[in-house]
Amino acid sequence: MPNHLAESLSPYLLQHAHNPVDWHPWGAEALAKARAEQKPIFLSIGYSACHWCHVMERESFENPAVAEVLNAHFVSIKVDREERPDLDDLYMDAVQTLTGRGGWPMSVWLTPDLEPFYGGTYFPPESRGGMPGFIPLLTRIAELWREDRPGLVGQAGKLTAELRRQAEVEAGADLPGDDRIEAALEQLRRGFDGTWGGFGAAPKFPQQMAVELILARGTARDQAMALRTLDAMWEGGMYDHLGGGFSRYSVDGQWLVPHFEKMLYDNAQLASCYLAAFQATGEPRYAQVARETLDYLLRDLRDPMGGFHSSEDADSEGEEGKFYVFTPPEVWEALGRADGERFCAAFGITGGGNFEQGRSVAHRFSCAPADRLAPEEDRALREKLRLWRDRRVRPGKDDKVLAAWNGLALSAMARGHQVLGEPRYLAAAQACGRFLRDALWQDGRLLRVWRQGRAHTPGFLEDDAAVIEGLVDLYESDFDAAWLRWAEALGEGLLARYHDPAAGGFFSTEAAQGDLIFRQKPGFDNALPSGNTLAARALLRLSRHLQREDFRLAAEGTLRCFGPWLARAPRAFLGLLSVLDLALREPLDVAISGDPADPGVGAMLREVHRRFLPGRVLSVSADQLLPLHEGRGAEAGRPLAFICRGRACATPVGSVESLADLLAGPPAPM
């Protein structure tokens, strides 16, 4: 018989809808039940693609003995961390404070007033390997709640006070300087793995924010670190050489064996990162990785309505990675013996294997030079094997659409069109923008979640901010001013709902939200840029298009707010430091007056897009209605480009050659 999760839209919650545990979704009904019955809350937070969440479900939540204890003594609540990042952030801080580490599945015990008093991550049903067993732990917590409730409540109050203290941001007064960026670069230099790339030891995670900061501000030696990291991620098994796209992370230091789940947010950000590397170096392999990653999103994660799904699981048929790994006989079956042997030699697929049960993760770095495939053969054999692999049982997919993650995907598709000139990426970006506007923009505010025709959950700071930046990138691709106007409305809502006008920066939630013990002001950049990074970057870019001083001041106020933290722990703020770089560097505005469909305008745009120009603002208009185009018309039907660096503007130019000269160096003042 299903529990209270049966009516949920979340694929993660639905995975638990038939557990014998009497699960409730987070909401007024469950919270009122805990208060009325004066029972502690067992809060379990995870996500659909989480391997160890599946393990704990099989071992514990499908176990009648576990369910009996939970149902008798606790109000059990399940939360999809991707739907409620605010709850996930808050209670993850609690678990990390209690245990010194965190992860998913997250297990937290709360008082009926939502204050945490104990927590951890995965627990086996019985004690093993130094880990406490889940059943004995539940039994002990229930016993303490009966016999020493005041003690647990007091412990929860002290922990909550400590979490409040940790969440306080000591606001700085001045805009931080270049020294903060240099300090982060120095930390990256010290942590760089000169053999395998990346920054730090295993497990290794994608490093897109580190790479982007280095590309924009690093020395030539730093650039070599960034490019080595991009090459190593692509050559290793974390990259799906058949279907494109990246897994969540590598369990080893060689980027060989991945944790196989594939997330929309990783792949959107990495596609943008490889596009930037292609602009900076002109190396075709970076364009290839970006193109294959964007095509993966279009083929496997795109919803027919235009948005993008959240993730693909690590597991299929109950085994982690089963969909992705091969033995030589399987490759021979798919490609024939001769082609199969050449493919195995090129991609490290051996009889002994490099993964479990003698199977291999495909990778490039162990290929001898003599075994490398010619580019056309490489592409053809990878595609043929992909089609053969597609006959396997695919990993599960979380097909909900999240506003923030789709903002990142919107940016990636728009930038893909700009840099690679592929019309399909522009069409996908426009469809995504229309979907977000039509399905998630309701009554003047953005909702966070959509699935199967239904939208729900008011958006958070990261949703509004990521969508704003996506719309700016989309405008810089098709130059439809309606995208900028919607971004402006979102920006005004961002200031009204989340901004802290006293200390600067932004809260992740609205003040009126009643199911949190306190509001947080997120600053640390993790797998995703923090909400404050996204907000500051989006508002700074939008301010330069619309000449909105309030947007600029709010963005710079965020940098001031987190200035002391940038000095204390620069590597924890790599995304925000990239925003600081934008704020400190001389602005580059490129305004082209003319019809975007004019071939002359197109030639100018190609010249702009082929260059790596961090922080440039690009606008095209046939009229003079946008701020960057006031008083700047075309000349007798001939498009003109107006280039300004800081407060110095050059004489407008009408040829691609003259535009190239201006983009290559500072203009002579008019």
Question: Can you offer a commentary on this structure?
Answer:
With 670 residues, the chain is of the alpha+beta class. The protein folds into 4 domains: 157 residues, Glutaredoxin (3-Layer(aba) Sandwich); 315 residues, Glycosyltransferase (Alpha/alpha barrel), CATH 1.50.10; 68 residues, no CATH class; 77 residues, Glutaredoxin (3-Layer(aba) Sandwich), CATH 3.40.30. Helix content is 50%, strand content 11%. Strand 10 and strand 11 form a beta hairpin. Helix 16 packs parallel to helix 18 and helix 17 crosses helix 18. The mean pLDDT is 96.
SSE layout and pairings?
Layout: H1 11-15, E1 24-25, H2 28-37, E2 41-46, H3 51-61, H4 64-73, E3 75-80, H5 85-99, E4 106-110, E5 116-120, H6 134-147, H7 149-167, H8 178-191, H9 208-217, H10 220-235, E6 249-250, E7 258-259, E8 262-263, H11 264-281, H12 284-301, E9 311-312, E10 315-316, E11 319-320, H13 328-335, H14 337-347, H15 375-389, E12 397-398, E13 401-402, H16 403-420, H17 423-440, E14 441-442, E15 445-451, E16 454-458, H18 461-478, H19 481-498, H20 531-546, H21 549-561, H22 563-568, H23 574-584, E17 588-593, H24 599-609, E18 616-621, E19 640-645, E20 648-649, H25 656-664
Concise overview:
By secondary structure, this protein is an alpha+beta fold. It is built from 25 helices and 20 strands.
Structural class: alpha+beta
In total, how many domains does the architecture comprise?
Answer: 4
CATH class descriptor of the largest domain: Mainly Alpha
Distance between the termini: 76 Å
Roughly how many Å is the radius of gyration? 26 Å
Shape category: globular
Strand arrangement across the biggest beta sheet: 1-3-2-4-5
Quote the average pLDDT. 96
Helix content: 40-55%
Percent of residues in beta strands? 5-15%
CATH architecture field of the largest domain: Alpha/alpha barrel
In the predicted model, the low-confidence regions spanning at least 5 consecutive residues are none
Number of strand segments:
20
CATH topology of the largest domain: Glycosyltransferase
Main sheet summary:
5 strands, mixed
Number of helices: 25
